[in-house]
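Example 5.3 — serine C-palmitoyltransferase
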Amino acid sequence: MALPAWLPHLVAAATLALLPPFAAADAVPSPPSPDISLRLAALGEWLWELWELIAPGGKLHPAGFLEHKGHLVVEALLVLLIAYLVWQPRSSPSKKADERLTEKEIDQLCEEWQPEPLCPEIESFPEVEKPLLATSVLGHHIEVDGEKLLNMVSTDFLGLSTSEHIKDVCRATINKYGVGSCGPRGFYGTVDVHLQLEESISEFMGTQETIIYSYDMATAASVLPAFANAKDVIVCDEAVHYPIQNGCTLSRAKVLKFKHNDMGDLERLLVKVAAEDKKLRKPLNRRFIVVEAIYHNTGELAPLDAIHALAAKHKYRLAVDESLAIGVLGPKGRGACEHFGLPPGGAEIVFASMGNALASAGGFCTGAREVADHQRLAGQGYCFSASQPPYLATSARAALEAVAGDGEGRRQVAKGAAQLRRELGRVAGLEVVGSHERDLLSPVVFLRLKDAPESSVEARRRLSELADWVRRRQRVLITIPISSPIEWRDWGPAIRIVVTARHGEGELRGLAKGLEEGLKELSKKW
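Solution (predicted structure tokens):
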């Protein structure tokens, strides 16, 4: 190949440019020697030949290399690489596979191993008395350890659990469907009675659609995570019971707690959240206020009218647990939302247990159609738990029909609750939780010692003695609930009494008198 005439001159000029400067400014460089010129010309020729090989169209250009069967070389290298990766061991154990640990090494590993606890460590847990064994329920009485006692612990507010009509409905359902439902609702677990119950609840509550859960404790823990995630905010009353607490935790949302039934503190939190979001320019997210209609931990009513107004003002969605209010509050027994004048849908999410006034088991959530439909895909208890046994669905539906037409039963519950609270309010030494006028309608009454000792263990012991005295002398069964250490707060030892439609005025008056007499007698040795 002929070398271009200008290439040697170009190489020579480049070489001179790289030489160090001369000592004298007026010195004139001498031309390169013939040997240097020849070497530079040979270098230029070699560079040109190299360029022709690697330039587009050359033999060593990637395209040309592949065209001249160079792709076979690349493919062979890839095959070797794949074979090397496949035959590599999955792990690199410190010992060979056939080498076993010695007895000394095994003992050393066992000594070093420290098991982690499956639950948080608990410093102290209240001692639990020997449980009473209930053998049968006879109307509003219960047989415990062979004794017939007045039952004031059951939340069967309307007495429907012993209804012969509901028992007949259950028997007929078992004869037709059996006692199981095969699996989750989305996998052979839906029976026609489930759909009928959902329609009946929607019609009763005045909502568009309802979804039912087989386990009431899993209802709140499924509903809240279905709508809230880590970007959202849940503001709830500090007195909500454990299922709601668990639902808040599982949702991973930011949880803010306001003081129990304190509307001033609730509005303070809502204003604070709005100010922080504006300052940090946070994107829009979902926000919920979660309360109970009647609180399991205090027996007090939530002021839903005021809470609804704050939710609308600050653009929050309202979620209400109506478990203890369904069948008890409201002209038609729809619960606290109806009692406080909220229209159907005023609370966007309403959920409740069917194990109280509805004489069944499981829970439900009702609201707009989108609320129920979304849970069919995102409600964990709906998607992964076996569906409700058919006979429980038909018993709940029969109880719902009874609730809708039993206005007299609701009036008896309200009358008995107000009477018992007034009677107990006059007992010296005892304090009725819930002093607001609206709390007179709550059939769940909590009693605490007025001059309670500082030690909660001692206070619980005294209340246990009082409850035992009432059981032995007055033949009345009352209970002292235990707070779990994993709950947000321990509300202190208290006696819980539940009023139903079957409790007469004389029985309620006798209970209050018995508590007063027992307190006088026991306080002598305290």
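Remark. The chain has a mean pLDDT of 87.
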